Amino acid sequence: MVNLVEAPKPLVYFLLRRAGLRQHTVDVDGAGTVISFWMPEGKVPKDRGTVRDVAPEVTAADSGNQQKTSSSSTAKPGKERPAVVLVHGFAAEGVVTWQFQAGVLAKQYDVYVPDLLYFGGSTSPSTDRSPGFQAECLVTALRKLGVEQCTVVGFSYGGMVSFKMAESHPDLVSSLVVSGSVIAMTDSISEASLERIGVKSSAELLLPETVKGLKALLSIATHRKLWFPDRIHRDYLEVMFTNRKERAELLEGLVVSNKDATVPVLPQKILLLWGENDNIFNIELAMTMKEQLGEKAMLQSISKAGHLAHIERPCVYNQHLKEFLAYVNAESPKETA
């Protein structure tokens, strides 16, 4: 029987290819750590010892449009465009999370959409499950792809990884956009969030095993109440919650004690782009974080949107995102040869 969640993926891949993106995997350490990316066609380094093409199933329409796409949707040779890295959250892989942003941004920017470790096509034999390890692997992969500077856009779990990237590698991360996330998941934030939501653990919320559990997650994550038939929920559980053991360990590796948590001094300009009705990390938490981060941080909220603001109201989200990208790139234009 056809999986109704998996079935639309060829269409998503087709649209990404029309936008000039291609899928590749990067060997991070030569020891089995691999990160999968959707990235600009033509941006793969000439020394391709650690980068491998991934060829999604090509439809007849895609094949017929391949030559046209290559000439019309990608940057001209020698033309440098600012890089934007879209880092996904916990409930879906990269292109599923950012399907309404990647193609839009690719018209003006070099867009990179990775799968974090244990999501999509990314994996590692390492036992390190910390956001810091995810950040270091992602930074290494980006450098191997020739990315020198970028704006990182992180959602939820990906926001925590993005903060780590910005803190440890300010030479690479020139600006930062974070949605529905925190700098670090402290004991107090974790306990308060779980109590407010009404669940006993992060795994109970973010790794549902039943249709009822998935419905509860979607209800909490969205402002509008969505309805899907149970088969859609079952199919989503089948394809989007793989690597359960490793992902449960990722959740355990998130929480740090209050006494060990610090607010880093970040040199980047930061946009906190929030769903006004976020029930997981509420707007009050975003306001507190803005004050902690200082004058280089700004907060913009999106009305009638919850945790999944980029999916519930993609046009509004994209407009705020594009305005910030235009602002930071006009202020600090990338030097071209």
Automatic annotation (TrEMBL):
Biased composition annotated in UniProt, kind: Polar residues: 62-75
Task: Provide the species name.
Answer: Leersia perrieri
Protein name, as recorded: AB hydrolase-1 domain-containing protein
Write down the PANTHER family for this protein, in alphabetical order: ALPHA_BETA-HYDROLASES SUPERFAMILY PROTEIN (PTHR43139:SF61), SI:DKEY-122A22.2 (PTHR43139)
Superkingdom to which the source organism belongs: Eukaryota
Q: Which residues does the annotated region (Disordered) include?
A: 57-80
Instruction: State the SUPFAM superfamilies in the record.
Output: alpha/beta-Hydrolases
An example of a GO molecular function for this protein is: catalytic activity
